[in-house]
Specification:
The protein is an alpha/beta fold and 327 residues long. The chain is built from 12 helices and 15 strands. An 8-stranded mixed beta sheet has the order 8-7-6-5-9-12-14-15. A 3-stranded mixed beta sheet has the order 11-10-13, covered by helices on one side. A hairpin with a 4-residue loop joins strand 10 and strand 11. The chain is globular.
Length: 327
């Protein structure tokens, strides 16, 4: 968003002159009795003197809570350039995309599989970067399900996130997953039941190093500038992994897309956009020269309230002391 964050947190936000209800994490139980709820609100209100006071929150939540309260309800300003580009591509993608079991053709909620994705996967697997990789970060996109299965069958370790990062990261380790469950493990529904959850701290402790990253995307141009669903999850994932040192600007980033998702027009990347080194479609492999990777850190002032509240690794970065606020 364009507005900059204020630097001082002065107390609970006011809504129509009244204190806003306590955040969900502060409630210890759901109170069904209206009197009890009123009593809790009055107790919370009494914390304020005539002069505004700092909102008392657990120490580890302080910074995230500041950013959450100080953003304009957490809603970033609309980027019409990106939105228009996505809408144009989505109209064409609708003709070749495979519907999702939950979201049907709502491309704002998922990256779809598409006709010819198997061919694109085969093309990616012929690349030297893939053949030499031992650990691959693969996003949980529908179009990458075949790649996740093939990588497991070839003995490669896969780092993947839960949907929308709500339950953080998972590690698919073929050495400890029964081979008959590889196909199930490669699906979004199955991976969380088979994979090992892993925190950012444990990635560091175990010395995990990612050899390449693979993602789907909503739209991408010949320069590797990609626009996803509009939530910024892949850029968050890159920034988190970069912050803990398991990827670097030299780590190759590849995108699997349909040909209709590749644009020849100039796209305008932002500081936090992760540019891809290679674009793979069912018909061609496009190499990008000098693809830039973001080193700006996570721009907390551009996140939505729901993301601050629902993505555990964001809080973990703060606890690890690896957060970095945008300038």
């Amino acid at each position: 968003m364009d507005a900059r964050l204020p630097t001082v947190l002065t107390g609970p936000p006011l809504m129509n002159g009244q204190p806003e209800a306590l955040p969900k994490w502060k409630h210890q139980s759901v109170m069904s009795d209206q009197t009890d709820r009123t009593s809790r609100l009055e107790k919370h209100t009494s914390m304020r003197s005539e002069q505004s006071v700092r909102w008392a929150v657990p120490e580890k939540h302080n910074l995230l809570q500041k950013w959450r309260l100080q953003t304009d309800l957490g809603k970033p300003a609309a980027n019409t350039h990106k939105s228009d580009t996505r809408e144009k591509v989505w109209r064409n993608l609708r003709r070749v995309a495979k519907p999702d079991s939950r979201f049907h053709y709502n491309f704002a909620e998922f990256i779809p599989d598409f006709e010819g994705s198997e061919t694109a996967t085969d093309r990616l697997m012929e690349l030297p970067a893939y053949k030499s990789a031992k650990v691959i970060f693969i996003t949980p996109d529908n179009c990458l399900e075949d790649l996740r299965l093939a990588a497991l069958e070839e003995g490669k370790i896969i780092l993947v996130t839960s949907y929308a990062l709500k339950r953080g990261f998972f590690l698919l380790e073929p050495a400890i997953i029964p081979p008959h469950r590889y196909e199930y493990a490669s699906t979004l529904d199955g991976l969380e039941k088979v994979a090992r959850p892993i925190s950012l701290w444990h990635m560091q402790k175990e010395g995990l190093k990612v050899d390449m990253l693979v993602t789907g995307t909503g739209a991408i141009n010949m320069d590797g500038v990609r626009f996803g669903k509009g939530h910024g999850y892949f850029d968050l994932e890159w920034s988190m992994l970069y912050a803990i040192g398991i990827v670097s600007t030299a780590t190759p980033c590849l995108a699997i897309v349909h040909d209709c998702q590749v644009l020849t027009e100039k796209l305008e990347p932002e500081d936090f956009d992760t540019v891809c080194d290679v674009i793979i479609t069912p018909t061609r492999t496009i190499q990008v020269d000098n693809a830039q990777k973001p080193v700006c850190g996570i721009m907390y002032d551009k996140l939505q309230v729901e993301q601050l509240d629902s993505i555990p690794p964001l809080e973990e970065l703060q606890v690890l002391g690896l957060y970095r606020q945008s300038p």
